[in-house]
Write a structure and sequence with these properties.
Chain lengths: ~180, ~400
C-alpha cells in the first residue's frame, strides 16, 4: 500500500511525464503544417495569391469519443506581411480566409463539424498579432473524431507592391471553451 | 516605371510556386481539463479573494518529442463574436489570476504531463463571469525542408491549443448591451456594415439580432444575425455582410439585439444610428475586387510528387522569363535606361567613341516639333539632349 501511494505521489508531481498507456482522452489537437508559401508574379495589376492549408483536427475522448460533446473552434490571427528586404508591408486587411470541411471523418462515432462561421473572413493582422477571430467551429455534439479542415488563404497583392519576399506569422489555436 | 516593373517581375518570378509543406514529423500538443471530462474546460465558482487549485494534462499525440510553452491568457471577444484568447498580450484580467506550476514541458510522443495550477481571484473583484485560458504552444519551426528560400509570400504557423478557465464570481448578474455607431467596410466585392457593440453587463451571452438598412425612410435591406459568445466588458465592431450593395448616400441603420436577461427572460434593445457611404467607401470595396486570382497555390500538405511538378514547372517558367528578361534588359539598358544627373564627366574615356544610353521615357518636343531625348555616354558620363545618337555625338564633338 505504501508503495502504491508513493507511486501516486510521483505521478502527481508537476510536469511528471506519464506513460503512453495512460494518454488522456477528451483531447483537442490540430496539426497544421509549420509553413506555407506561394508566389505572385508582379504584372502591374492587382492580384490575389492563394494557398491552402489542410489541417487535421482531432477531437476525441474516452468511451469511443462519447465524451467529446462540447464542440470546438479554431481561431486565427496574424502579423502583417512585411518585406524581408524593403520592410514594406501589405495591408492589414490583405488576407481573407475561408474554410471547408472534408466530408469524410475518421475515428469511432465521428461526425462532421456544424460550422456557423460566414466567409470570406478578413484575417486580423498587425505588427503585433491582434485579437484572433474564429475561422471555423463545431457546434456541440459535432466535429467528433478526426476531421480535416482546409483553410484557403487569399492575400491581396496590389499593383504597386514592391518586389520582395513578404513574411507573416499565422497563429492558429484549437480552443475548447465557452 | 517600366524599368521598375521589369525588375519587379524579374524578382518576383524568381520565387517558386507553391511550397509543398508535406506534414513533417512533429510534436502535437493537446490539453485536457482534469476533472471536467465532459465540458472540456474549467468552470470555477470563486468569490473575490478565493483560491482554487486545478490541473491540466498536456499530451503529445504527435510523432516526435517536443517542448510546449505553457502560459495563461485573458479571454476576449473576437470581431465576429466567439471567445478568443489574447495570446500576444500580457494578461491583466482573468488570465492574470492563473499561475501554472510549469512554463515549459518536454513530452515524448504518446506521453503526457499533468501540470498543476492555481487560480486566485483578487479581493475586490466585481461579480460576474470572467474568462481566461491556458495555452500550450509548440515551438515555432523556423525552417521547413519543403520550402524554398526564394518565395514571394511566406507564412510561418504557430500552433496553439487552449482550454478556457471560466471563473464565476458570485453576486448580482446583469445582462446588458450597448449599440453604438454604424459604419461600412469590406473589400474585394463584399460590402459590410460594422455595428459597434459592447457587452456592458457581467455575463456571457450569445445575442441574436437584426439589421434594417433604411434609405429615405424605406427599408432597403433586412439582415438577421446570430452571434456566438460575447464576453462581458468587451467591445467589437460586428460585421454584417450585405446582400445588396449600398451606393454612396445617407442611410439609417435599425439595429435590434435580443439576449437572455439574468432571470432568463428575453431582453431586447434597439438603436437607429445614421451612417453614410462615401464614393471612396464604394471604391474601396468594389475596385479591390479587380485582382485576378493566381492559379491556386495548392494545398500545402500536398504530395511530394505534386510539389516536384510545381518546382519543375516553376523552374522552367523562371528560366524562360530570365532569358527573356536578360535580352530585354540589355535592350532596355541600351535604349530606355532612365538617366540621372551625371556626377562626373571624363572626356578621356570617351575615345574612340561614345556609347549612348537613351532615355526614351523622358523625351520633350522642341519648338520645331522635333522630339529630343536625354542621352548619356556610358564611357565618359557626358549627357546631352539630342534627337538621335548622331545628333548626340555631333553635340559632344562640338564641345
Amino acid at each position: 500500500m505504501r508503495t502504491r501511494l508513493g507511486l501516486s505521489a510521483v505521478l502527481m508531481t508537476a510536469g511528471a511525464v506519464l506513460p503512453a498507456a495512460a494518454v488522456a482522452a477528451n483531447t483537442l489537437t490540430i496539426s497544421p503544417p509549420s509553413t506555407a508559401a506561394f508566389s505572385v508574379t508582379l504584372n502591374g495589376a492587382d492580384q490575389t495569391g492563394v494557398t491552402s492549408l489542410a489541417i487535421p483536427v482531432s477531437y476525441t475522448s474516452n468511451a469511443q469519443n462519447k465524451f467529446a460533446t462540447s464542440g470546438w473552434k479554431i481561431t486565427a490571427t496574424s502579423t502583417v506581411f512585411a518585406g524581408t528586404t524593403t520592410s514594406r508591408t501589405l495591408s492589414t486587411t490583405a488576407t481573407t480566409v475561408s474554410v471547408t470541411d472534408d466530408p469524410s471523418c475518421t475515428d469511432q462515432n465521428c461526425s462532421n463539424p456544424s460550422n456557423s462561421v460566414s466567409y470570406p473572413l478578413t484575417l486580423p493582422a498587425g505588427t503585433t498579432a491582434p485579437p484572433a477571430v474564429a475561422i471555423v467551429n463545431a457546434a456541440p455534439n459535432t466535429g467528433v473524431g478526426t476531421n480535416t479542415e482546409t483553410v484557403q488563404i487569399s492575400v491581396a497583392v496590389p499593383a504597386n507592391t514592391y518586389a520582395d519576399t513578404y513574411q507573416s506569422i499565422l497563429t492558429l489555436a484549437a480552443v475548447e471553451g465557452p | 516605371m517600366p524599368l521598375r516593373l521589369v525588375a519587379s517581375a524579374f524578382l518576383a518570378t524568381l520565387a517558386l510556386a507553391p511550397a509543398a509543406g508535406a506534414a513533417a514529423p512533429s510534436a502535437v500538443f493537446g490539453l485536457r481539463a482534469v476533472g471536467n471530462p465532459k465540458l472540456g474546460y474549467f468552470v470555477y465558482d470563486l468569490g473575490a479573494g478565493a483560491t482554487r487549485k486545478g490541473a491540466v494534462i498536456v499530451s503529445n499525440t504527435g510523432t516526435r518529442s517536443g517542448a510546449a510553452k505553457l502560459y495563461a491568457v485573458d479571454g476576449g471577444t473576437g470581431s465576429t463574436t466567439g471567445t478568443v484568447y489574447l495570446t500576444d498580450n500580457k494578461p491583466v484580467r482573468a488570465g492574470a489570476w492563473i499561475t501554472l506550476a510549469e512554463s515549459r514541458v518536454t513530452i515524448a510522443p504518446g506521453k503526457f504531463a499533468r501540470i498543476p495550477f492555481t487560480v486566485h481571484v483578487p479581493a475586490g473583484t466585481a461579480p460576474g463571469e470572467w474568462v481566461g485560458g491556458l495555452v500550450a504552444e509548440a515551438a515555432l519551426q523556423t525552417e521547413s525542408g519543403h520550402t524554398t528560400s526564394k518565395t514571394g509570400v511566406q507564412i510561418k504557423i504557430r500552433n496553439q491549443t487552449i482550454v478556457a478557465v471560466q471563473v464565476n464570481v458570485p453576486g448580482e448578474r446583469r445582462a446588458a448591451f450597448a449599440i453604438g455607431a454604424v459604419k461600412t467596410g469590406g473589400q474585394r466585392g463584399f460590402q459590410q456594415v460594422l455595428i459597434h457593440l459592447t457587452n456592458t453587463g457581467n455575463v456571457l451571452s450569445k445575442p441574436t439580432g437584426s439589421l434594417d438598412i433604411l434609405q429615405a425612410g424605406k427599408v432597403a435591406e433586412t439582415l438577421p444575425f446570430k452571434m456566438d459568445s460575447f464576453l462581458p466588458q468587451t467591445t467589437i465592431d460586428y460585421p454584417v455582410l450585405l446582400t445588396k450593395a449600398l451606393p454612396a448616400g445617407d442611410y439609417q441603420a435599425r439595429v435590434s439585439l435580443s439576449f437572455p436577461s439574468a432571470s432568463g427572460a428575453t431582453q431586447a434593445i434597439h438603436a437607429t444610428p445614421a451612417f453614410s457611404v462615401s464614393k471612396q467607401d464604394v471604391k474601396q470595396v468594389f475596385t479591390s475586387a479587380a485582382p485576378t486570382q493566381q492559379a491556386p497555390g495548392g494545398t500545402v500538405a500536398s504530395s511530394s510528387a505534386n510539389s516536384t511538378s510545381w518546382a519543375v514547372i516553376a523552374g522552367i517558367v523562371a528560366a524562360l522569363v530570365l532569358l527573356a528578361l536578360a535580352a530585354g534588359g540589355i535592350l532596355a539598358r541600351r535604349r530606355k535606361r532612365a538617366l540621372t544627373p551625371t556626377v562626373q564627366v571624363d572626356p578621356a574615356s570617351c575615345t574612340p567613341f561614345h556609347y549612348w544610353d537613351v532615355d526614351y521615357d523622358h523625351g520633350a518636343q522642341d519648338g520645331d516639333g522635333t522630339w529630343r531625348f536625354p542621352h548619356r555616354c556610358r564611357n565618359c558620363g557626358l549627357e546631352v539632349t539630342a534627337k538621335d545618337i548622331t545628333d548626340a555625338s555631333a553635340q559632344a564633338d562640338a564641345g
